[in-house]
Amino acid sequence: MAALKAEEQNHLQLMEREEMDAEDDLFEAIEKLINQGINAGDVKKLQDAGIYTCNGLMMFTKKHLTGIKGLSEAKVDKICEAAEKIVNYGYITGSDALLKRKSVIRITTGSQALDELLGGGIETSAITEAFGEFRSGKTQLAHTLCVSTQLPTQMHGGNGKVAYIDTEGTFRPDRIVPIAERFGMDPGAVLDNIIYARAYTYEHQYNLLLGLAAKMSEEPYRLLIVDSVIALFRVDFTGRGELAERQQKLAQMLSRLIKIAEEFNVAVYMTNQVIADPGGGMFISDPKKPAGGHVLARAATIRLMFRKGKGEQRVCKVFDAPNLPEAEAVFQITSGGIADAKD
Ligand code: GTP
Ligand code: MG
Fold first, then answer.
1. Tens digit of pLDDT for each residue in 192-225?
2. Which of 137, 266, 301, 341 gives a 20 to 30 Å CA spacing to 226?
3. Contact, 23 vs 153, CB < 8 A?
4. Nearest CA to ligand 1 atom 28
């Protein structure tokens, strides 16, 4: 990345080039279908439907694919057969699975204590959810990750670009400047490597996700932020009878997020709101739980609960993760972003 200062850049350039070569093997462009006898027009139809890689193709059902205008069942069969010659869609050995896990990168949060809690940082190919009360640091962590993702992997970064979907209008590009400076990076270059969109409806939010596949198949993205994932759903579905429909649309969007994470080896960081939990128990004075119900709970790989501590300190608790203990870390919000607590 061009964001790092000169001397460090020279030092790391060679290793980064090697990294990028390795990346090339991660996903196969959908155009490769042409070499397998699929005509370019049909490949274009897949791209128009948001499918840019052969790896991505297998994440759609045949029913979905035949729903694409101009693709008959026979054509879809031919396309799937051709794609299977390019990507292995079946079983792999445990050793290969381990190798695949090794392409997973952990991106630093800016706080060593928080990184340790997360087993090294936020993980690519997974969804990290942060929920918690207002001003607990969810958006500040998003801003810090915007910068740290661009660090080389040797410096606990992701050596990649960032996509930011903002549903609450709380992205502050001016906050990126001191955070970039803290990490010794050029703020202008860091800002250039972030693509940002403000979403106004849940449909808009979904369409923005669809548009990302094209960008991510062309350039190395390592982080997608959705802050917050649920706010627009709570605005757009207000009627009592609308909850089932809301959950169905939410599930659809979350499934899109999971696909992006896995297809492009991207870390998805999404924030969530908290709602009152009347069933939280009589010994908890102000019981709260994450919004989004089971649909959201199932989608997140790692769920983190944020709360305020004293002063600028914040506490993060692992709420639900398959391979992490339920523990806590204290961090601090500073002008340079998330950092370790001072005392
Ligand atoms: P909601 O979106 O309202 O639910 O909250 P959130 O969890 O996203 O909170 P956010 O990450 O926006 O954290 C806001 C907190 O960060 C506030 O307490 C601010 O005072 C603090 N903060 C923001 N910028 C700075 C800064 O430059 N320096 C310091 N020290 N604190 C900051
Ligand atoms: Mg926020």
1. 999 999 999 999 999 999 999 999 999 999 999 9
2. 341
3. no
4. 335
